[in-house]
Amino acid sequence: MNNNYDSNVDAEERDRDEWQRVHSAVEYADIRARNKVRIKTKINKKDVQVRDYYPSHDKVERKLFKYYCPICLRYFNTILVSTCCDNYICRFCIGDMAKKAKCEKDFVISCSHCNT
Ligand SMILES: [Zn+2]
Ligand SMILES: [Zn+2]
Description:
By secondary structure, this protein is mainly α. It folds into 2 domains: 1-34; 38-116, no CATH class. 44% of the residues lie in helices and 10% in strands. The protein has helices at 3-34, 59-64, 91-103; strands at residues 50-51, 67-69, 74-76, 80-81, 88-89. The protein has a 3-stranded antiparallel beta sheet, with no helix packed on it. Strands 4-5 form a two-stranded antiparallel ribbon. It is elongated and about 60 Å long. The protein starts with a helix and ends in a 13-residue tail after the last helix. The chain binds zinc ion (2 copies).
């Protein structure tokens, strides 16, 4: 093995890497063009807490989990409000739609409440 051969392999790997990066950037731009949903929040996703049932017997939790997502029917300490119709939707439901939009070419994210 000589040094020239090694450096050629390196260059090839790097090129492929860059192509992938550019390619995925184009894909994301395409998804963004089809889907007008933008999430504006200052709350970190890891701070979003969820309960499957309303904590009716726990005073502290009752105060904390005061938002209800009408899509997944769960309770949250924080929730997103749609700017189109002022309805609640949780971060996970938006996340599911975003995931679906990345996999299914024809899927368009729309508001679950008013369909805009
Ligand atoms: Zn939800
Ligand atoms: Zn809406």
